[in-house]
Queue: 2 jobs
Job 1
Amino acid sequence: MIISIVNHKGGTGKTTTTINLGSALAEAGHRVLLVDFDAQGSLTYSLGMDDQGPTIADAFHGDATVHQLITEREGMHVLPSGAALADVELAIAKADERFNHLSNLLHALSDYDFVLIDCPPSLSLLTLNALAASDYIIVPMQMDVLALRGLDSMLETVRKVNAIHPRLAVLGIVPVMVDTRKNMYQEILQHIQSNYTERVFEQVIRTSVKAAEAPSFGKSVVAYAPQSTTANDYRAFAKEVVRVTKVHQQQLTTSD
Ligand SMILES: Nc1ncnc2c1ncn2[C@@H]1O[C@H](COP(=O)(O)OP(=O)(O)OP(=O)(O)O)[C@@H](O)[C@H]1O
Ligand SMILES: [Mg+2]
C-alpha cells in the first residue's frame, strides 16, 4: 500500500516520520520503499545520500527508470530527490493527466508492503500527485494552536482529491514532537478528538535530542539511537499503523 506523509505547514515532522516509520517497519520485516518527493531533498540528505546525484526528477524526465534510481538504506529502498524536482513541477503543470505522473511511475513497483511518500510543505501539484498515488495519508502534527489552524484547509484538499480518487483515506493524525509535561498537548488533543472524525493515533511521538541529532549522522533515529524514546515511539507507532491498515483493508474486502 502507498501512504503519503502530508502536512502543508513546514517543519511538522513529515520527513522524520517518513524515515522512522519506514525504518521501524523494515526492522519488523516489512518490505519498505521511501519516496523523497520534496525538492528540499531532506529525506535524501538525512539518510546520508547524495541529493546532487540522480534523483526522482530523472524518472519524470524519462532519463532513468525508478528501478535504476533505488538505493538501499537501513533495510529499506529509497528513491532520492533534490532541487531538480522543482523543475518537474513546472514541466508537468500543463501536461494532460497532470495529477497522475507519480502514480504512473510507482506503478512499475509492486514488491513493497509499504511505500511511504515524504511530501513537500505545500498543497502544490507535487503534493496532489502524491495524494493521487496513495491509498492513505498520515498527518504528523505538533500539538499547538497554529498547527491546528492549518488542519481544515488540508482536510478540504483531501476531500477535493477524494472526488476524483475515492480510494484515498485519511489513516490518521499522529502527534509529533510532543512534550508530555505540557498541558497544551492534552488540550489540543481533546479539541481534535471532539471536533474531527479523523483518527488521532494512540501512539504519540515524543521529542528527544537524539531525534534532532540523527539526520546529521545520516541515519534514522531508530538506527542512530535504538533505545531512545523517539525510536521506541516510532516502533510502537509502526505497529499501530500495521494494525489499523489491516483492519481497514479487511473492511474494504467485506464491503466489496
Ligand atoms: N521527535 C522529535 N524530537 C526532536 N526533534 C524532532 C523530532 N521530530 C522532528 N524533529 C526535528 O524537527 C525539525 C523538523 O522536522 P522534519 O524535517 O521532519 O519536518 P518536515 O515537516 O519534514 O519539514 P519540511 O516541511 O521542511 O519538509 C527537524 O530539525 C527534525 O530533526
Ligand atoms: Mg520534510
Job 2
Amino acid sequence: MNKKQKILIVDDEAINIRLLIEALSDIPNYQIIATKDPYDGLKKAKDANNRPDIILLDIQMPELNGYEFCSEIKKNKDTEEIPIIFITAMQDAESEAFGLEQGAVDYITKPFTPQVVKARVKSQLDLKNFRDQLNSKVIQKTEALHRSQEDLELERIVRGQLEEKVQRGKKMEAIGTMTSKLAHDFNNILLPINCYTEMAMMSIEDKGIKDSLQQVLIGVNRAKDLIEQVRSMGRSNTITEQNITRNFINLENVVDEVKILLSPMLPQNIKIEMKLEAKSLIMGNTTQLHQVIMNLAKNAVHAMEESGGVLTFYLNDEYVSLETGKAMGLESGDYIHLKIEDTGSGIKEKLMDKIFDPFFTTKSKDKGTGLGLSIVHGIIQSHKGDIFVKSKIGVGTIFDIFIPSIKKSEQEGI
Ligand SMILES: Nc1ncnc2c1ncn2[C@@H]1O[C@H](COP(=O)(O)OP(=O)(O)OP(=O)(O)O)[C@@H](O)[C@H]1O
Ligand SMILES: [Mg+2]
C-alpha cells in the first residue's frame, strides 16, 4: 500500500488526544489529524482531498456529542463509509449498544491500553483498505464491461453499414450491366426513327406535318439524353481498370470548371462559395469526376431554387486513421475530402437510404430521372472512394466524398 492512511481523532480533551497518538505511534504508514472541536472534525471528515480512513471519536463532548457527530457522518453519502470507533469512559452495555446502532464499528472504553487501541484501529484500517481495493476493482470491471458493450454495439453498427454498402454495390453492378445492354438496344431502335423523321422532314412542304415531325425529333432527342444517362450509369458501375483512362487530377480544377459552367444558369438568390485547400492529387477520370460534381451541384441548386441560398465547395487533404477508417468503412490512409454543402430544402429522414437508388426521384418527370446520385455513387466507388450524406429539413444537405489521394513523394517519383 503506497498511500498513507489517515486517522482522525475528535476529542475535546487534549490529554486523550495525546494518549491516543502515543498508542498509535508504531502503526506503519499512517497520518494523524486531531481536533478538539467536533465541528472542525466534521469539516475535516468532509474534506474530499483529506478524507480520513477512520475516525476515533469521543462520545461526551459539550457542543456536539459523539452520537450526533456519528449520525452527521452517516447521513452524508461521501462520508458514510468511514469507519468510526467510539472512545468513551462510559462502561454500561446500553450506551455501547446505542453507539453501535448509530453506525460505529467498534467501541473502546477508557482507560484503555495502547495495545488494544492499536490492535483495533489496525484491524479496522486493514478492513477499510481491503474494502477500498475491492470497490476500485468492481469499478474497473464495471467500466471494462461497459466499454466492451460499447465496442460490441459499434462493431454491430459498422458491420451493418458495411453489409448495406456491399449489397448496394452488388445491386448497382447488376443494374449497371442490365441498363447498359438495354440502352444499347434502345439506341438502335431510336437511330432509324431519327433518320427517317429527318428524311421525311426534308421531303415534305406542309408546315403542319413538318411541325409534328419536329416534335417527334424533340422526343427522340429527349430519349437519347435519357439513354446517355443510363449508359453512363451502366459504365460507372461496371468500370474496370482496363476500360477507363486515369490520370493525375487536381480536383480543384474540376470544381472550378463546374463553377464556370454553372454560374450563368444560377438565379440571383443562389451564391457559390469555394474553400479549396487541398494540395494532393488523385488518380482518376476527369470526365467522370466532372459528372460527379456537376450532378451534386445541380441537385443542390434545385434544392435551393425556391428559397435561394449558398452552395459551398470544400476541398481538403485528410488523413483517415485506422480507427476512423473502421467506423467509416474506409481503408486507413491519405484522402482528398470534397464536401459539397447547400442551404436548401434538405432530405427527409425516411428517404435518406433511397436517394442513391437508380430512378429514385422526388422531382417531376421533366425535371429529374433519378439517375444522378446512382451515377455519382458508381463513379466514386470505381475511384475506390466513398460518399456520405447528412441532411436536415429546412437547413440543408452535405455530401462528403473521400477519394484516395497521391502523396507528394509518389507524384515526384513519376
Ligand atoms: N442536395 C439535395 N437537397 C435535397 N434533396 C436532394 C439533394 N440531392 C439529392 N436529393 C434528393 O435525392 C433525389 C435523387 O437525386 P438524384 O440526383 O439521384 O436524382 P434527381 O436529381 O431526382 O434526378 P437527375 O439527377 O437524374 O436529374 C432527388 O430527387 C432529391 O429528392
Ligand atoms: Mg440529380
